[in-house]
Design a protein that fits this description.
This protein is of the alpha+beta class. The protein is built from twelve helices and ten strands. The structure holds 2-acetamido-2-deoxy-1-O-phosphono-alpha-D-glucopyranose and magnesium ion.
Length: 366
């Protein structure tokens, strides 16, 4: 993108002031994200400009409808608890056509929101206080949306955390071997297939009604929470693209998959990859501390299984995409999806070993 293109897009969203520059943000695997700076009223104002990946989100207007309803609802709920929600909810800009999106002449689907002042994100962090805050942030999010009318949400990606369906899709990728790269990952394929029962157990419990569907975030990576730059308190949960009915234990579990890992999501040296129990405990303390009163006994009991399910699911998604030829996730280098999949497998195997330890920690905070 050149400066002129970025500036023109911002004009479409009615952003006032003098355009200064932009930066590309590279930590998401799906959308293209830019932070754009404008000078106005004597200071720099920053905006997030994003192009939605329409290969992944087939109906991006539905995505924006969900987001505008959910953010409005959150704003009201948060204001019941405190004076202002200004730094706690994203504020999307309307385009000059009065819509929360703009479609450019090449079909690119854009949205824009104000960046929350003095906020930061964390990817991998060793700071247990930040991890606990992250848990409380996702826990609060869960509580705020507890009474949100779930049937009004569009299902933007059907079967998103349907692990049974994910395994079926994975097997199809293996069978089709579109990229011809299957031979490079035979061992991983075999190991993932051996773990299918444990990966699908919890989803099956939701189908029999043993676990309730609630409004969940569905992409609870630590970098989807904004923290105050100075105090590191959690401010807002972001990346609301996949807010849909789901399992609380999957939100918990996907967060653990990311923040509980001792290493990065794409660490190549697998000896560095394990479930860090200190991180697990910090996140659990924050999350469970906030949501415990609303959980059923089965929900409480299955939180550790949520972590295993989400790690295996994410792993087969990365591996399936590697075998398909990197169609879904953005990659920085050709083998990255295989590396991510190997890392998730190592992590999931360690979680299985530490199942009882996880369960004991959960009990401590219930
Ligand atoms: C994607 O966009 P991002 O990076 O927050 C993906 C998640 C995966 C995650 C793995 C819509 O999230 O489901 O867990 O990558 N989002 C979508 O890091 O597929
Ligand atoms: Mg994201």
């Amino acid at each position: 993108m050149d400066h002129e293109e970025i500036k023109n897009l911002c004009d479409r969203f009615g952003i006032q002031g003098e355009y200064k520059y932009y930066e590309l943000i590279t930590n998401g695997h799906i959308n293209k994200t830019y932070v754009v700076y404008f000078f106005r009223d004597g200071e720099l104002k920053d905006y997030i400009l994003q192009r939605i990946n329409t290969y992944v989100f087939k109906n991006p207007i539905d995505v924006m409808n969900n987001i505008s309803s959910v953010t409005q609802y959150l704003r009201l709920k948060i204001k019941e608890r405190q004076d202002t929600a200004k730094r706690n909810v994203l504020h999307y800009q309307k385009s000059i056509d009065g819509l929360y999106y703009y479609i450019d002449d090449k079909g690119g689907f854009w949205r824009c929101c104000r960046y929350i002042d003095d906020s930061v994100t964390f990817n991998m962090t060793e700071d247990l206080k930040v991890i606990e805050e992250c848990g409380a942030g996702f826990g609060d999010f869960q509580n705020y949306l507890a009474e949100y009318p779930a049937d009004e949400l569009a299902i933007v990606i059907p079967h998103f955390h349907n692990t049974v369906m994910r395994y079926a899709t994975f097997k199809k990728s293996v069978e089709d071997n579109l990229s011809g790269r299957k031979a490079n990952v035979e061992n991983e394929i075999k190991e993932y297939l051996e773990l299918e029962d444990i990966a699908t157990k919890m989803y099956k419990m939701s189908k029999t009604g043993e676990l309730p569907l609630k409004v969940t975030h569905n992409d609870t990576k630590c970098n989807n929470v904004l923290f105050d730059k100075n105090t590191h308190e959690h401010l807002a949960v972001i990346d609301l693209d996949t807010v849909m009915p789901g399992l609380v234990g999957f939100d918990f579990g996907d967060a653990i998959r990311f923040i509980g890992n001792s290493a990065e999501e794409d660490e190549k040296d697998l000896s560095k990859v394990y479930l860090d129990m200190k991180k697990f405990e910090a996140f659990t303390k924050g999350f469970v501390g906030v949501v415990k009163d609303s959980l059923t006994e089965k929900e409480k009991e299955t939180l550790p299984l949520g972590a295993i399910s989400m790690t295996l699911e994410c792993g087969i998604r990365f591996l399936g995409d590697y075998i398909d030829g990197d169609k879904y996730f953005n990659v920085d280098y050709p083998e990255q999806n295989a590396v991510r999949a190997k890392c998730q497998l190592a992590l999931a195997k360690d979680m299985i070993k530490k199942y009882d330890e996880m369960a004991d920690v959960v009990k401590k905070y219930l």
